[in-house]
Design brief:
Elements (H helix, E strand, L loop, with lengths): L5 H69 L3 H28 L1 H8 L6 H7 L1 H18 L4 H36 L1 E2 L2 E2 L3 H38 L5 H6 L6 H42 L13 H17 L1 H22 L3 H28 L1 H9 L3 H33 L4 H21 L7 H27 L5 H28 L6 H37 L1
Antiparallel strand pairs: 1-2
């Protein structure tokens, strides 16, 4: 059975993430243009309410199935692997169905309690079926990942993202067109009288957000179908002879016990992680109202009563979305390293375990620090490159994104480290670490956001501080638990790359803007500056690796 190593598996997943994130940006940018800051408050708020239930139901599935599969594969228990897949699929599909029914039943009270408008209950109803689809998808992906075959995960993610973009945009646009026609014909919209087209558009926002979310749900179902067809046609690489070589399997009860014993701590940590978004939903609008009352101002086009939801939607829909791109890339390394870590741990290979940990940390840092540095020094330019035309939303989100650029560096390392700790059976520790980070975030949100001088930037500071604590605790615990030694000079290189990349990007952007007489658009200047920053970082690392030892040797010879 052909398997992929850590770097090859990471490359496959990284390639799929680059593709899916590019498509995702192509989806989120026009969606933000359609919904605006206020509409994104419905969209982001629905996911903030939905995420804890999704985490409790689904989050531990993929890692749990992958771990059990990797262990069975390491000891060549192929018949057991097939039974594991069937049992996990039945068990987690039933769990997802129960969670979907619960969310549908509670959609109205949840919308009234947490979302800007009771009509936003339809966003939660549109999300409910995805709990079933996500559970099935996680079992399938986890099974293939445990077999060290990352291609099915990568392919299904691309299919899911493409359909999400198409169906989500078409759905939201169709709802707006329907609302415009309804207003033109009856001066009403969704059964309510509207005085102006602007009133009708505002009333349409929760329904358009629900349509976009329904597209996301349907795309997840399509990914499940694609993986199911792929399994039927291509199989999993286990032959009949391999099945006959070891026909022994664990009992169904034992399989369920092992799956739950591994998935429940991961789900607990994931639930606490999602509380970060829920904390923002509960504290940001309230804190902004206090800041506005104390003298904070916003765009003159936005009324003070609508300003908190507008800023919250701009922050979550623009700043947090951009900040989340980098951690998504590095999280793939944690997923790809899981089988290798499991096998090394199960067979007691301490050297192989330490090597995998070093690769995981260093590769994550080499990606995270330069990317986060560019975002931190070019926040407005990043948003204008992606969301040109939404001047009010960019003005609201840009100061916060500058701080979040630093926070995303911490988060990009903490996610794979937490994943590795869970894989190595340190199940309670990630929960403790994430809980401490969420507590810090809650306290700082309550203190900083009501300050008129900070406002939404206070939420970004709180997020960066909490992620910094989580990162240091997770990475330190992982190194200590595995006995891995990481030389300081290896840690300094990614930091050097980040400083070079950020300073070069900022400097080149300003120089090009000043020296060229013609006014160049941001969408041309920004990628040029980012490319210069990346090239400068690579050159700086090459000089430090290849040239400095030679210079030191020559200087010693001269002495």
């Amino acid at each position: 059975m052909k398997q992929q190593g850590f770097l090859k598996g990471s490359a496959i997943l990284l390639g799929s993430v680059v593709i899916t994130k590019a498509i995702g940006l192509g989806y989120k940018i026009p969606l933000t243009h359609l919904l605006g800051g206020s509409g994104m408050a419905y969209y982001s708020g629905a996911f903030a309410v939905f995420s804890p239930l999704l985490a409790a139901t689904v989050s531990g599935i993929s890692a749990s199935v992958a771990r059990q599969t990797a262990e069975g594969c390491a000891f060549r228990r192929y018949a057991h692997l097939r039974k594991l897949r069937r049992t996990a699929m039945l068990m987690y599909t039933a769990l997802g169905l129960l969670a979907a029914l619960l969310l549908t039943a509670l959609s109205l009270p949840l919308a009234k309690a947490f979302l800007p408008d009771p009509h936003a209950m339809w966003t939660l109803c549109a999300l409910a079926p995805s709990l079933v689809f996500c559970a099935m998808l996680s079992v399938q992906r986890g099974y293939y990942e445990g077999l060290r075959n990352m291609l099915p995960t990568a392919g299904s993610e691309i299919v899911e993202t493409v359909l999400k973009a198409i169906l989500g945009l078409v759905g939201a646009y169709a709802v707006f067109r329907y609302a415009e026609a309804d207003f033109a014909a009856t001066h009403g919209c969704f059964g309510q009288f509207c005085r102006t087209p602007e009133d009708a558009a505002a009333l349409t926002l929760p329904y358009a957000a629900a349509a976009a979310i329904l597209g996301s749900t349907l795309s997840t179902g399509a990914a499940v179908l694609c993986l199911g067809i792929s399994y039927r046609l291509c199989g999993d690489g286990i032959t009949k002879d391999m099945l006959l070589s070891d026909p022994l399997t664990d009992s169904t009860g034992e399989i369920i016990r092992k799956l739950f014993s591994h998935s429940l701590p991961i789900a607990g940590a994931a639930v606490i992680t999602t509380l970060s978004a829920l904390i923002d939903l509960l504290t940001i609008p309230r804190g902004l109202r206090a800041a506005i009352a104390a003298g904070m101002s916003g765009p003159p086009e936005i009324a003070d009563t609508a300003l908190p939801d507008f800023i919250y939607g701009s922050y979550t829909g623009l700043a947090l979305m951009v900040c989340g791109l980098v951690p998504t890339l590095t999280a793939m390394f944690g997923k790809s390293s899981l089988p290798a870590l499991t096998e090394a741990s199960a067979k007691g290979r301490s050297k192989g375990l330490s090597k995998s940990i070093r690769e995981l940390i260093l590769v994550s840092l080499y990606i995270a620090v330069p990317c986060g540095g560019v975002i931190a020094v070019l926040p407005r330019e990043t948003l204008e490159f992606l969301f040109s035309g939404r001047a009010n939303e960019i003005s609201a989100a840009a100061p916060a994104l500058s701080v979040l650029g630093i926070g995303c560096c911490f988060m990009s390392l903490s996610l794979p480290c937490l994943s590795a700790l869970q894989t190595l059976r340190r199940r309670v520790l990630p929960i403790v670490i994430i809980s401490a980070g969420c507590l810090i975030k809650l306290v700082l949100n309550l203190i900083l956001i009501p300050m008129p001088a900070l406002g939404i930037t206070g939420a970004a500071i709180a997020a960066a501080a909490s992620q910094g604590v989580i990162c240091l605790a997770a990475a330190g615990s992982l190194l200590k638990h595995t006995g891995t030694v990481l030389p300081k000079h290896q840690l300094l290189k990614p930091v050097l790359a980040g400083l070079i990349s950020a300073s070069s990007a900022r400097l080149s952007y300003d120089l090009i803007e000043r020296l060229i007489p013609a006014e160049l658009p941001v969408r041309l200047l920004y990628p040029v500056a980012a490319a210069i920053g990346s090239a400068a970082a690579v050159l700086g690392l090459w000089l430090s690796d290849a040239q400095m030892p030679r210079l030191l040797k020559r200087s010693r010879q001269g002495e």
